[in-house]
Each structure stands twice: as structure tokens, then as C-alpha cells.
Amino acid sequence: MNAESISPGNAKSEDEHRRDICTVGRWIHSRAFVASTDGNISVRLDSRRVLTSPTNMSKGMMAPDDLVITDLRGKKIAGRREASSELAMHLLIYNRRPEVHAVVHAHPTTATAHAAAGIPLNKALLSELIIALGCIPVAPYGTPGTQELSDALEPMVQNYDAILLANHGVVTCGADLLAAFFRMETVEHFAQVSLMTELLGKQVLLSGRDVEKLLVARARYGTTTAATVKPGCPVTSDNAGDTASESTGSGEGRPERISVTREELEALIEEAVRKDRALR
User: Measured between alpha carbons, how far is 102 from 87 in angstroms, rounded to an integer?
Assistant: First the structure.
């Protein structure tokens, strides 16, 4: 197995999970999804143990023996370092979602900007996002590393595999670590597309009928997601004019429109292309 690849599935040895977490740590760091010692990654080892990244350490510099094992209440079982300061958020997801075996928390720039602006990623702009995640809501702000954050997340955990954390970042989960990472990547990609369409001054949304067909296609693609479809989520061309919605729920009001010059738009697009090429 290539040292920079991981295989799908969660039926692995502890050593394999340790290597996988370190690999995903390098991925989120190299893609600028985290800076400094930000972010955290965990895997459910079994019905009573969780393997997590340590606190106060760059996710791009972790070694397998830096990781920490805790129980599902957060009590350390093994490890020379201390567990992530935001482990409680991971444990909430594991305790509420027995089918989830991995959680990734990061701060990808464009998605985090939406979280800081209180704008959910809930528009029917990309067919792939509808199939993969449905809607991505914004959870109310909670102080990182405290019970406040878990309390803010709790009402949404059961129904979403990706959640924006107000003024903070993004958390994703999945049946295995690869799925949780891919969902983080999908969230950031969609956030970039959504922003670019806003800058271009036009968003052509899919219709409700289009969305219904995509939801049916989930089974054909083998997509398993917790996302539930609610009135106004995702926002389609049929209900785009509705304004009675909340930024932290299934919908949103119309975002404030901004204006940029052609030169500014070209500079933004060139910078996005340059960053994309640098990551390849």
C-alpha cells in the first residue's frame, strides 16, 4: 500500500488506523484545510475505544505513536500525549450515530468563511452535492473545546454528515475515515463553487423535480448519507424566492449581494486555479 493512500473500510488493525489518521492529517494540512495545530481526526476502534489525534500538534506532522486512545466518555486509556481538546464533539457523534466510525474536523477557508458569515451550503447548485450530502447547515456558535460546542451540534448530528460550525470550521463524519475525509473535501469544493457563482452574479438552481431524481439516484450510486430532505432544503429554483428561513436550519435568507470589478474577479479566479494546481 502506498504510504500516501488509505483503503476504504473500518475493519483494520489499530496500527493501520494509526497510519491512516496520520495520512489524512497530512492531506488536510497540505490542502490548507488546517493551519498551525488546528483540526482533529478520530476513528472508532471498537464499541468502547476511540483513537484520536493529540492536542497542540500539527496534523501534518503526526506520527502513529503520537495518537491517543480514549473511551467513549473521553477518559484516556493509552498514549503519551493528551487527546484533542475538541474530542467531546467527536464523542457526541459516535454516541448518537453507531454507524459512524470516523470524524474529521478542519477549517477549510471557503467553507469556514460561509460558517463565519452564517450562510449554510444548502442550494441545489451541484448534482454531486445533492447525492453526497444533501444540505450542509450551520450550527450555532459554541466555544471550541467546551460543552457549548457539543450542545450546539447535538440537534443536527443525527440528520447531517457535514455541518458548518459558526465562526469556527467544519465537521464531517462517515462509515470510515476515507468517507469522512472525502466529505470534508466535498464541502470545501462546493463552498468554492457557491462563492464563485455569487461573484459571477448568477446562480442557476436545479428544480425540485431534478432534486427528487438525484435523491433516487443515491441508491444507484451506493451513497449512504444521514441527510434528510426537508421543506426548503435544498433551496431549488422552485423555492428560491422564499425568505422565511433560518441560517442555522435547513434554509437561508437571500445573502447580501456584493460587487467586484472584472479585474478583481479575474484575480480571484486566477488565485483559485493557482492553488488547485499547486495541490496536484
Answer: 12
